[in-house]
């Protein structure tokens, strides 16, 4: 049994026929959030359930088929990959309705089919407001461009998870070893049984969030994380927690001897040529960065060019749960590398067996949701009609999301700065879903698909 499969319980075939609607969490831009601003919007709508869980062999075949082509992204027309252009063009209207409804000031959409970029479009403004209400003069606003850099928020967790699995491949970390093996200072009551796998599947039982930014020093903030105690028994429930990924980032740093930002640059973004992906972007890039919101409680004006998440900001902008900035094109490169089985152009970031384990459902009785190692699986509330037991992706609180589907070899990326000028506008999940669904419709309405289905 390899180091990935140790202790792994395979998912049984299940049919879920329940829906659960929870109230949306929001908080004022004039005061700190009482829960994590990075807590995913599972409270917004009916969460994804698995109508027919694929068995592991079927799942592996889907990713093996995708990985065989090893595509390098190129631009092309929808017709070249058997998609109907009309529905791809309809994405423009979908995104514009969100801007007109003041759900977000601007956005970038990028869609890929079979390695071909069939849509890469920018909309609205990246910087539009002076404060929470006052619009900037027209001449001072910055229009969104296709290479606008966004605060990825919780999509940072994907990078941290890949980094963590790279340390597993190097035999520096065992997924089923207790966290305390690597971080002896992680010594709160009840933490001794929490494993690295628990962190990556959000089954550690640790609280979703604690306000570490309220502590005076960096040392005190980290100590608060190390002393956090589980609220439920580890391994018994799914509790989406920023603390999990902060700890995983610290494990990567401890075993590698490198800072998390340097490790990700050296082993992920650098090899993939993702030059617009980074923590703490320099001042010279500010004109390309989408603004977020003011945080007067931290003596910050309009947050623009530095991380939006308060806890990540208090950790000097580098944390396992938030802090990465990126573009749609760079995120597409990472996504295509995953579809390719961990390989892109001349770079390999993960082995194929690692990709398979990373994107296999890791939990059963802990939740009705499916969860890979750091990745969300089968989440219809943002994956729309691409949602399935093999679809993978993530969202970010600032208004970012992406989904990868190996069955159709499709990537859909939707980046917004929905928290500009405040986080109070509400859920953008309907727009996330509608953008994805237009891509699916473009595939499903193509004559070749219709013929094959008859």
From TrEMBL:
Secretion signal span = 1-29
One of the record's GO molecular function terms: hydrolase activity
InterPro entries per UniProt: Beta-lactam-related (IPR001466), Beta-lactam/transpept-like (IPR012338), Diverse_Enzym_Activities (IPR050789)
- Do you know which Pfam families this protein is assigned to? Beta-lactamase (PF00144)
Entry keyword annotation includes Signal: yes
- Lineage top rank: taxon: Bacteria
Domain Beta-lactamase-related: start-end pairs: 92-431
Keywords of the record, alphabetical order, are: Hydrolase, Signal
Q: What is this protein called?
A: CubicO group peptidase, beta-lactamase class C family
* Species whose genome carries this gene: Salipaludibacillus aurantiacus
């Amino acid at each position: 049994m390899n180091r990935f499969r140790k202790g792994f319980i395979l998912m049984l075939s299940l049919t879920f026929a329940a829906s659960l609607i929870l109230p949306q969490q929001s908080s004022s831009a004039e005061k700190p959030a009482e829960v994590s601003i990075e807590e995913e919007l599972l409270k917004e709508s009916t969460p994804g359930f698995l109508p027919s869980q694929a068995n592991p062999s079927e799942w592996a075949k889907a990713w093996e088929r995708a990985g065989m082509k090893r595509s390098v992204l190129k631009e092309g027309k929808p017709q070249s990959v058997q998609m109907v252009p009309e529905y791809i063009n309809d994405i423009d209207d979908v995104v514009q309705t969100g801007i007109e409804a003041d759900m977000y000031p601007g956005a970038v959409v990028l869609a890929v089919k079979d390695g071909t970029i069939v849509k890469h479009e920018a909309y609205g403004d990246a910087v539009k407001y002076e404060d929470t209400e006052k619009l900037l003069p027209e001449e001072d606003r910055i229009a969104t461009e296709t290479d606008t850099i966004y605060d990825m928020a919780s999509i940072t967790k994907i990078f941290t998870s890949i980094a963590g699995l790279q340390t597993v491949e190097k035999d520096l970390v065992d997924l089923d070893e207790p966290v305390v093996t690597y971080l002896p200072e992680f010594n709160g009551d009840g933490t001794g049984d929490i494993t690295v796998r628990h962190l990556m599947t959000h089954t550690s039982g640790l609280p979703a969030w604690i306000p570490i930014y309220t502590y005076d020093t960096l040392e005190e903030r980290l100590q608060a994380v190390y002393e956090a105690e589980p609220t439920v028994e580890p391994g018994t429930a799914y509790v989406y927690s920023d603390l999990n990924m902060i700890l995983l980032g610290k494990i990567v740093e401890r075993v590698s001897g490198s800072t998390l930002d340097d490790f990700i640059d050296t082993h992920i973004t650098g090899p993939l040529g993702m030059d617009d992906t980074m923590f703490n972007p320099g001042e010279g890039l500010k004109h390309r960065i989408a603004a977020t919101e003011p945080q007067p409680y931290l003596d910050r004006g309009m947050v623009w060019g530095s991380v939006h998440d308060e806890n990540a900001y208090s950790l000097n902008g580098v944390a396992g749960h938030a802090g990465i900035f990126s573009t749609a094109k760079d995120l597409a490169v990472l996504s295509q590398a995953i579809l390719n089985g961990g390989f892109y152009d001349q770079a390999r970031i993960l082995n194929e067996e690692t990709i398979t384990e990373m994107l296999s459902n890791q939990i059963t009785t802990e939740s009705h949701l499916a969860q890979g190692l750091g990745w969300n699986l089968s989440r219809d509330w943002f994956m729309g009609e691409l949602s399935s037991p093999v679809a993978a992706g993530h969202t970010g609180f600032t208004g970012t999301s992406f989904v990868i589907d190996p069955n159709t070899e499709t990537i859909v990326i939707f980046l917004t700065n929905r928290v500009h000028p405040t986080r109070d506008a509400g859920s953008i999940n309907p727009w996330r879903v509608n953008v994805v669904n237009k891509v699916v419709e473009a595939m499903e309405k193509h004559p070749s698909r219709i013929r094959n289905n008859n």
